[in-house]
């Protein structure tokens, strides 16, 4: 039992380019959507509720993506998401996208915690820190 | 038991505009994705497999959408899809998008059947005609 | 000299589907972007500044689009935008998308005026009404 | 006179999230569109013509993006694009996005050259190699 969060995405015709594979520009969109889904699952609040109900946000400061194999509509895109590093005011996620058991891309995404409605860095709320630390400890 | 096909979409932060609701431009994207999912469910081939494996396509000639209530990330967007008219070389779908039991938008989308790799109109294959006629008869 | 507003869009590889033409879902996105650009040009405030600086918004209540010919990356997509009807609290635009002198799609888009941060209908500010009425009179 | 290629993008309401800034997922889309525009300007063939008329493609194997400042609709987004490394079968671009003279993001994007319709690596055509080498030499 790995317990790593997985988010499944339906890749469609509209995501594919004339080469018949998902256009590169959609892959960061899919990875980000999967991180949003991780928060919704783990914290019970995706980015929308986090901002409007919980008073903080997590804008991105960097992303790195490596594409190893094309994504197509022939299988669901299963995105595995896990936090891998928690700084004083930042968090880094690893996202791996797989189809039919084969890695298609993997990436690293770093956000900072900010107060809602501003872009001032802040430390995450205590229960968020606890949650992320537990999750990192459980995903060695 | 209605039997009408439903496709559920996760609306996220990235689909929302500064008014805090899903940006209008995403709603046709969601409706089209739901029609693609209808084909995948009913025919066993979404638009991608339809083109590459079955040799025909269904480009759109028109869409009409009415927006009655905002779409937000607070609930899944459930899109109900049903074919409502089958012409000699065309098909019209009705799509209704609901969240939390409330209609958010409804639309009508008309495609024509064409040969793969070209844009010449053609009649749909017989098993497609049968399938659609049965579905229309069952969704009065 | 027609004076009708034109907005030019670069259609790229990433907007095309495996049939080698712009995916249907991008066409409403392009039309909406062109209406946003019309406001920026005519009022001096696109939707963003309209909401944040001018205190009102114009969410859509309907769109109708007819697609007559495929859009490709081979030519700029020139979208002609003109208001065609002004109601007490609503406005309707006509958008025609052309490439290389050939109509590709045409559409009708209706918005309502609302107060910022809410979704209550309101009449447009007087200078907006004047501007739109003049433009409609000049585009018979 | 730097001669570095610049591509200007209109960021709109529809690209912004509820925090009032361009959604992170659109920034790779904008950067990729700018690289496509670089090819169109320098080679006379964007990705579309490259595939369909010139018989080769340049799928991406990696992207790295750092976000330093928010992108908004208040100014055009000017993306500066330059090739920075040419391998035997790969090319790396640097893209810097600026608004109002301020860096908003910068990124590195690596593609491989492949034959059209396949995903087999190949060396770029000679005139492409020449063009890129000259451009790299001119952008120290």
Largest sheet of chain A at a glance?
Answer: 5 strands, antiparallel
Mean pLDDT of chain A: 95
Helix content of chain A: 25-40%
Low-confidence stretches of chain A: none
What class, by secondary structure content of chain A? alpha+beta
Specify the overall morphology of chain A. elongated
**Largest protein interface?**
A-D, 26 and 26 residues
CA-to-CA gap between the ends of chain A? Answer: 13 Å
**Count the strands of chain A?**
7
Whole-number total of structural domains of chain A: 1
CATH architectural group of chain A: Roll
Radius of gyration of chain A: 16 Å
Stated plainly, the CATH topology of chain A is called: Thiol Ester Dehydrase, Chain A
Determine and state the CATH class of chain A. Answer: Alpha Beta
N-to-C SSE string of chain A, H for helix and E for strand: EHHEEEEEEH
Task: Please identify the oligomeric state.
Answer: homotetramer
Number of helices of chain A: 3
The CATH superfamily label of chain A reads: Hotdog Thioesterase
As a percent range, the share of strand residues of chain A is 25-35%
Major β-sheet strand ordering of chain A: 1-4-5-6-3
Structure description:
- The structure is a homotetramer of 140-residue chains.
- With 140 residues, the first copy, chain A, is of the alpha+beta class.
- Chain A has one domain: Hotdog Thioesterase (Thiol Ester Dehydrase, Chain A), CATH 3.10.129.10.
- Helix content of chain A is 27%, strand content 34%.
- Chain A contains three helices and seven strands.
- In chain A, the strands form two sheets. Chain A has a five-stranded antiparallel sheet with strand order 1-4-5-6-3.
- The two termini of chain A are 13 Å apart.
- The model of chain A has no long low-confidence stretch (mean pLDDT 95).
């Amino acid at each position: 039992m790995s317990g790593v969060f997985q988010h499944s995405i339906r890749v469609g015709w509209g995501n594919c380019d004339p080469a018949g594979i998902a256009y590169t520009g959609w892959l960061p969109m899919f990875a980000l959507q999967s991180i949003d889904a991780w928060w919704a699952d783990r914290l019970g609040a995706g980015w929308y509720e986090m901002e409007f109900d919980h008073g903080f946000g997590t804008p991105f400061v960097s992303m790195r993506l490596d594409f190893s194999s094309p994504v197509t509509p022939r299988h669901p895109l299963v995105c595995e998401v896990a936090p891998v590093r928690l700084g004083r005011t930042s968090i880094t996620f690893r996202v791996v996208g797989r189809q039919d058991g084969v890695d298609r891309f993997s990436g690293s995404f770093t956000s900072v915690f900010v107060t809602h409605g501003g872009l001032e860095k802040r430390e995450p709320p205590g229960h968020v820190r606890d949650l992320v630390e537990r999750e990192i400890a459980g995903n060695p």
